[in-house]
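forwarding from the other thread:

> can someone predict this with nicotinamide-adenine-dinucleotide?

sure thing
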Amino acid sequence: MGERLADKVALVTGGGGGIGEATARLFWEEGARVAVVDNDGAAAREAAGKIDGAGERVLAISADLSREPEAERAVRETVARFGRLDVLANVAAVRVWGPITEATPESWDFILDVNLKAVAYCSKFAVLEMVKQGGGSVVNVSSANAVSGRRGMAQYDATKAGVLALTRSMACDHAAQGVRVNAICPGPTLTMFHVRRRAADKGISLAEAEAEMREAGASSTLLKRQAEPREIAYGILFLAGHESSYVTGATLMVDGGLSV
Ligand SMILES: NC(=O)c1ccc[n+]([C@@H]2O[C@H](COP(=O)([O-])OP(=O)(O)OC[C@H]3O[C@@H](n4cnc5c(N)ncnc54)[C@H](O)[C@@H]3O)[C@@H](O)[C@H]2O)c1
């Protein structure tokens, strides 16, 4: 247990699983009071329960953050319970596969609503709260594929590039108010979402799918392996806390060297 976020209040979107859950857990271990927000309310409650069974420093919130009033409610409920908001980690995202020749207006709306607009909605209400307090830190999770091309995920990668532009412009707008805004670009990270999808697609067990994914991730990075969610969470923790006090508008690559 550490104290890097002692006395801080953090809201983590997508906290019901994967990198979001690992981030919420690490923030909690570093002393923060944490709101775990997810549109999968059961997953948010389960993650919150695993992090802090007593529920003293954790709050689970079920909210579809692609809807602005829901993002506002998530921030409002966090402040009502914990009294302030110092850190927003925008982790929630969805994926759409295929080239843009297969994209539809519906698939564009779906992915833009969560990956870009929800980041902006949550940031809007969090920043308004942080400005009242005199400062705060926003960390937006993008992707190594926001800066590095590949086949088959054009819509997703475009939204993640949008997150980087949003991050830089938000940093410009809010620096004078004491709000730092940074982005992190994970490389391939082994989360249950990917394992479950591969197992279902190929009709194989979760263990087989995980082994295949470890192998697949190994070929695309310099470090020859996939990241564990906690390795990404450490980057988010750095950008969230006081150790990055002179960092704003930055993009931190935590991608095993994929993008170089
Ligand atoms: N896993 C990877 O390989 C990888 C690589 C690069 C970037 N990323 C990024 O890291 C972040 C986390 O990825 P992950 O693999 O842990 O994802 P994940 O799919 O495991 O978790 C995403 C969470 O977001 C939630 N969510 C989806 N839509 C929502 C909505 N409308 N409102 C609230 N919550 C919603 C989901 O329920 C889920 O719990 C994402 O931004 C992703 O794009 C992941």
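The first helix runs from residue 18 to 29. thats all i got for now
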